[in-house]
Design brief:
24% helix; alpha+beta
Length: 190
């Protein structure tokens, strides 16, 4: 999947760069990408979106930075703007007041890995301690923990494993106060 993903990302990036060159240049760019990929269909739109599809898979990106890659090996989706959790995000504990900034899903076979990033108004050190306590009380085992404070900046993380999921949480001091939080959820057994 790495070779296909790299090729699709390169072609998508090239398409985004050249998409604003006018209709003739747009068609020439589409044809050049199609030929370099050994066939397939490319579509560059005036709004900055690009899509590519061939027998190996598909790639699409829009002007808002949302991305979708699919192949026989799996898929990757990045939602950079909706402010919402993925529809099928597992029922796990998130910090109170968690405001989603972006999310992604990566699927291979029956396994899906979810990553969400967001903001919380709480102090990051206190937030990490609270999350560790919450996950432990829910039956998760702490696999590892890290924290560091340098001046006014706190950085910390903790990883947990439960019956269904492995969860890793990263917490940092946000620029405007509060905390940035990243949450990665994968199957406990792979």
């Amino acid at each position: 999947m790495r070779r296909i993903t790299t090729r699709l990302l390169f072609m998508g990036a090239a398409g985004l760069v050249l998409a604003s060159c006018g209709e003739v240049a747009e068609r020439a760019t589409e044809e050049a990408i199609e030929q370099s990929a050994g066939g397939g269909e490319v579509d560059l739109d005036e709004d900055g979106s690009v899509s590519f599809e061939n027998e190996d898979g598909s790639f699409s990106a829009d002007a808002d930075g949302n991305l979708n890659i699919e192949s026989e090996d799996g898929s990757f989706n990045l939602d950079s703007q909706s402010g919402e959790l993925p529809d099928d995000f597992p029922d796990i504990s998130l910090p109170d007041g968690f405001k989603v900034q972006n999310s992604s899903t990566q699927t291979s076979g029956k396994n899906t890995i979810y990553t969400v990033a967001g903001l919380v108004d709480d102090d990051p050190a206190d937030l990490l301690d609270d999350l560790i306590g919450t996950y432990e009380s829910e039956g998760y085992e702490v696999e590892g923990q890290f924290n560091n404070t340098s001046g006014d900046i706190f950085t910390g993380s903790a990883s947990f494993v439960g019956a269904e999921y492995r969860v890793t949480i990263g917490v940092n001091t946000a620029n405007e106060g509060g905390s940035t939080v990243s949450v990665n959820v994968s199957p406990a057994e792979r």
